Amino acid sequence: MRKFRIKVDGEEYMVEVEEINNEDVSNRTNNNKSETDSYKTSSGTTSRKKPVQKGPQVNNGKSRNELTAPMPGKILDIKVKEGQKVEKGEVLIILEAMKLENNISAPCAAEIKEIKTEVGQNVESGELLIELG
């Protein structure tokens, strides 16, 4: 058993890794763990729930009033107009990244103050797409 310290999204975790042989791999594949199995947390306590995986941050701007690109890509469609009121979770922009279409949704109920991008534009991760009011 080897111990490693890893950092994910700025949070540090201690993990233990066990080297296994091919026979162990086939046995473990046939006996998959369920979501109620125990997991060790970074603090060493045992949890009965499977750890939650974090997806890309949709609203990683400086405030809740900014919608930024969660990853680099190309703007395929803008589903809203300036001045329009939107609900939390409503799709605002479709961003193509790695040949996949990603729906970029409103992080909260708001009004579209200003659209800072256009269809066909290539954007970088963290680039401001829409100002919300």
Task: Give a description of the structure.
The chain is mainly beta and 133 residues long. The protein has two domains: 2-47, no CATH class; 66-132, OB fold (Dihydrolipoamide Acetyltransferase, E2P) (Beta Barrel). It has one helix spanning 22-30, and strands at 2-8, 11-17, 39-40, 46-47, 66-68, 73-78, 85-86, 91-97, 100-105, 110-115, 122-123, 128-132. The strands form four sheets. It has a four-stranded antiparallel sheet with strand order 5-12-10-7, with no helix packed on it. The protein has a four-stranded antiparallel sheet with strand order 9-8-6-11, with no helix packed on it. It is elongated, with a radius of gyration of 21 Å. It starts with a strand and ends with a strand. The model is unreliable at 33-37 and 48-62 (pLDDT under 50).
